[in-house]
Amino acid sequence: MPSSKSERRQRALGGAVGVIVLVLAMVYHFFPELLHVQPHDAGPGVAVSPTMMPPPLGFETRPRPASSASVQSSEVNAGPPLSLAPHAVIVARLWPATPAAGSSAGAPPETAQVKKLLSRAADALARGDLGGDAQSALTLYLEVIRLQPDNARGRAGLNHVQQQLVAQIEDDLSGGDADAARTSLGLLRQIPGAGDVSDRLEQRLVALQKVQPLLQQAAQLMASGQDMQPANANALAVYRQVLKLDPANNVARQGLHRIQRKLLDRALGEVAQDDFKDADTALARAAQIDPASTALQDTRGRIEGIRRQRAEMRLQQAVTALDGGDLGLAQRLRDQALAISPDVAGVTAFDQRLHNARIYANYQPGQEFSDNFVDLDGNGPTMVVIPTGSFQMGSRGSSAGQPANEAPLHTVSIVQGFAVSRTEITVAQFRQFVRNSGYVPDSVRLHGSNVYNDQRGTMVDDPDATWQDDYAGRSSAGDDPVVNVSWHDATAYVKWLSQHTGKTYRLLSEAEYEYVMRAGTSTPYWWGSGSPGRKVENLAGSRDRSRLGRRWTHAFRHYGDGYWGDAPAGHFLPNPFGLYDIDGNVSEWVEDCWHDNYIRAPRDGSAWVNPGCSLRMLRGSSWGSSPEQARSAYRIAASPDTRSGRVGFRVARQL
């Protein structure tokens, strides 16, 4: 426990500290200038009204320090525009608070009467009694100045009254209250040195009096729904006329904002009905009223977000329609999505899909697919989607190795996508057709085919050779290309394939065959102009040998592929379109009838068929063709019932 002596010492010290704090507080409150304190500093950077004027002549104010702003300054510098701010904030923005002042150096001391007047004036100022009677702040401060012209507190108080009056007049003028502004202006003119600011406010008052009938007219038009119509006789036009006469008129500005808000609400309503065109029109009209409006920017952002969302939703509906095969609906929905938002994400990819759907049935060029049978086990041959395009069909005239039947050279445009089997139809695929359909191929029905005889070194008729045999009349493997088949056999197969897949299969046209055989090239062969530098196709090469050691007398020089006769389908390299054996292995049936030149030939890639024609076309070289016969332009005719160990076929499918 502390001793009584220590306790008395602590109490004495605490009492002294308390007295010092109390004295400092009283000095701070009544004589803040002694501590270099300005308690009502409004802070740096306070915006000044166009009508703000310096304090009256003969009055001086202490310069404001550049110290940090007080809590009051934060309130002053924040919040709504000046014309919409509370009265106290307007005052603080227009003028910084003037610090209390004592008597100036050399000035006579304040008398008891002056002190009493100053106290009463301060009370009146605090309760907002600025002027109008003997007890108002204006009257009392004027009396102080009359008694002591150099009294600092009197000058500061009168300056505060001026500030309050100017702010009040500003408020009244902005609100359209001409009577209140006129009353306050009369009080302001009583303050010495306030003439310039009074004159400026007087001009605004005169302008307000001129526009008051217009404001009443605009209010009536708004009440009757004539905010924007009819032209030149609506509230919008009247408010604009008011602002030409009185640019600071807040009533007119608020009227314009109300009209703009109606337009913005209308835009949102149109968007709710998916009418983005009318919404854009409403936004454009709203922008003409106040392009910098925050409400306009917010609404525009909301509508843009809705626009993108709706456009993406509509594009997704288009994708669904496309997946369902309804291309017309997909196109319409896609167009609607673009009408809603021209930059909708994903439209480029959709357009490519729609194009592919129209041209390639939703496939991609080069894509491989196989159709399942709808009523049988298994599936059809592997197909390759062929890109659309155009090419020069034929050769450039009659010369050695280039017969006249390959002329005239002409342009063929393939505008509709189609697919071609990746290889020739194989023995296994044809066997499935024969077993399922009961069809009797011509090699069986007409007894035999034309096959290779190695002992003679020529092709000979063999009455026992059938579609199940190879180029020499021996039994074929399942992956060998089917040979010894006629044009009739090939067409019977594609009809069966169409029936059991539900898709449209057919033989290639002659133009299509040359198009896919060239695969975008213009050289004699798809691999170039001479002997291949690598094993590309099953061709007649100078290095090939038969079982009995025979050689070709006219073949591709320095080329050998290891086969004398047909090779398994797809054994070599594909051409640029992804097709195997298109210019080798076996020649292939196409749909066209024979014509001895290309005069009047179709230019769209379709088959050139005459009813009852006796000759059909073969395209592509075989394992035994000469280099001239392997050219992309080469063509030859044959009777549709021809069977040969050098002839097979492949199929096309409509997309």
CATH class of the largest domain: Alpha Beta
User: How confident is the prediction overall: mean pLDDT?
Assistant: 86
Distance between the termini: 108 Å
Widest sheet: strand ordering: 1-2-5-13-8
Secondary structural class = alpha+beta
The total domain count is 4
CATH architecture of the largest domain: Alpha-Beta Complex
- Low-confidence segments, given as residue ranges, are 36-84, 94-103
**CATH level-four homologous superfamily name of the largest domain:** paralog of FGE (formylglycine-generating enzyme)
Number of helices: 18
The rough form would be described as: rod-shaped
Tell me roughly what share of residues is in helical segments.
40-55%
* Biggest sheet statistics: 5 strands, antiparallel
State the total count of DSSP E strands.
13
Spatial extent as radius of gyration = 51 Å
Fraction of residues in β-strands: 5-15%
- What is the fold named in CATH at topology level of the largest domain? paralog of FGE (formylglycine-generating enzyme)
Provide a descriptive summary of the structure in words.
Helix 3 (87-94) packs across helix 6. The protein has helices at residues 4-30, 71-77, 87-94, 112-126, 137-147, 152-175, 178-188, 195-223, 235-245, 250-272, 276-289, 294-323, 327-340, 347-360, 427-437, 442-445, 487-501, 510-518, and strands spanning 368-369, 383-386, 389-393, 410-414, 418-421, 449-453, 458-462, 505-506, 587-593, 616-619, 636-638, 647-648, 652-654. The chain folds into four domains: 40-193, no CATH class; 211-291, Alpha Horseshoe (Serine Threonine Protein Phosphatase 5, Tetratricopeptide repeat), CATH 1.25.40; 305-360; 366-655, paralog of FGE (formylglycine-generating enzyme) (Alpha-Beta Complex), CATH 3.90.1580.10. The protein starts with a helix and ends with a strand. The strands form four sheets. A five-stranded antiparallel beta sheet has the order 1-2-5-13-8. It has a four-stranded mixed beta sheet with strand order 11-10-9-12, with helices on one face. Strands 3-4 form a two-stranded antiparallel ribbon. It contains 18 helices and 13 strands.
